[in-house]
Write a structure and sequence with these properties.
seven-stranded mixed sheet; about 400 residues; about 15% strand; binds pyridoxal-5'-phosphate; 13 helices
Length: about 400
């Protein structure tokens, strides 16, 4: 990288354009000006310059996952993150295989829906809205169901914000000799996840979460031997990861039209990720965001869904106040008028809302958010933020 490029790549938190709100949503999220600017030109998908960008991002992602040899492959795939999850499940699980899906929210549930479409056999451990699957439960299930071939776990279950005990579960899965498929969509890039510490077989993430790119593609990091033995498993031409990988290896190109602007923006986002200190740097900023947010919200009387030890630095769920004047839609609009977009809750048990800690925001901006929340509540006439108990 030249000096000028390095300075350009330095993480400078730039306010969104006038009137553009901060997206406190777990992807799409607020991107940097540099990342947006990377999209101000057009690229030919066959061109060698573009192919170089593709090669660089694949290499950068493998490095982030701690891969230093060719034992794993990185396969980007057009579409949102779910497309990549679907492709990964179809590739990793043999047609006569059987998955154990660990579920504690919307994304674990979505994996079972995908398996239904794929016609793959599975059992599920459903912990409800937010309880973490325990390693002992996984061990017990694997003992009682020796025909299970693959275990699927969501690392950060974005629907509640819980950070599931990946390391402990990975050890159990490996001790039983099963394949581990991790949906690290909302954690990869901000929570350490490397092959030396977490012996995963397949890991899925996407451009518009913790690496702070824009939507357009997902990517799968997969043990190469597993990928190579997956011929004939895919149910879908466009989601065939093996074909996508082989074509990319052979030609340097994406098999079908790539989301060119999203790809070049992602390269710029990756440079900023490195300049911020990689995963550790990003984790530190997001953690500070979360700590500032949670402390400020609790000071106003709000309560988090989760105990502190389960809170991810990605997104936090708060219970809605039971005060009669609190109405989520109004709250949302008041905050949007103050330049902050938040997220509705996804719980079946209680009214809630979520606030993301990821994207180009820092504790100073979280401080502004807290003032905006206090203002919004005052305008709404909500003077007690406690939920029902
Ligand atoms: C965002 C996300 C996905 C993918 O969702 P898309 O809307 O398809 O991008 C999958 N799993 C988790 C845990 C996520 O946070």
């Amino acid at each position: 990288m030249s000096k000028a490029e390095f300075i350009n790549a330095r993480p400078a938190l730039t306010a969104p354009a006038l009137g553009e709100p901060y997206l406190l949503t777990p992807g799409p999220l607020t991107t940097s000006l540099a990342t947006k600017q990377a999209m101000l030109r057009d690229w030919g998908s066959w061109d060698t310059d573009f192919n170089r960008v593709t090669a660089e991002i694949r290499q950068g992602l493998l490095q982030m996952a701690g891969v230093h040899d060719d034992s794993y492959a990185c396969v980007p795939l057009q579409g949102s993150g779910t497309f990549a999850v679907e492709a990964a499940l179809a590739t990793a699980i043999a047609r006569d295989g059987k998955a154990l899906v660990l579920m504690n929210g919307a994304y674990g549930k979505r994996a079972t829906q995908i398996l239904d479409y794929l016609g793959r056999d599975y059992i599920a451990l459903d912990k409800g809205d937010y309880l973490p699957p325990q390693p002992e439960e996984v061990a017990e299930l694997l003992k009682n169901h020796p025909d299970v071939t693959d275990v699927f776990l969501v690392h950060c279950e974005t629907s509640s914000g819980i950070l599931n005990p990946l390391r402990e579960i990975a050890d159990v899965v490996k001790a039983h000799g099963k394949n581990l498929i991790v949906d690290a969509m909302s954690s990869f890039g901000a929570v350490p996840l490397t092959v030396d510490k977490i012996p995963f077989d397949v890991m899925v993430s996407s451009a518009n979460k913790c690496i702070e790119g824009i939507p357009g593609f997902g990517f799968v990091i997969i043990r190469r031997a597993l990928l190579e033995q997956s011929k004939g498993r895919a149910h879908s031409l466009s989601l065939d990861l093996l074909e996508q990988w082989q074509y990319m290896e052979r030609t340097g190109q994406w098999r079908f039209t790539p989301p060119t602007h999203s790809v070049v923006a992602f390269r710029r986002a990756l440079e900023q990720h490195v300049a911020e200190g990689g995963v550790a740097g990003r984790q530190a900023r997001y953690t500070k965001n979360r700590d500032t947010l949670v402390a400020g919200m609790r000071a106003m009387g709000f309560q988090t869904l989760l105990e502190d030890r389960w809170l991810s630095p990605i997104i936090t769920t708060f219970f809605s106040p039971t005060h009669p004047n609190f109405e989520f839609k109004r709250f949302y609009n008041e905050l949007k008028a103050r330049q902050f977009v938040i997220y509705p809750g996804k719980l079946t048990i209680a009214e809630s809302f979520r606030i993301g800690c990821i994207g180009q925001i820092d504790e100073r901006i979280v401080g502004q958010l807290l003032r905006a929340i206090a203002d919004a509540l005052a305008v709404m006439g909500v003077d007690d933020c406690r939920p029902a108990n």
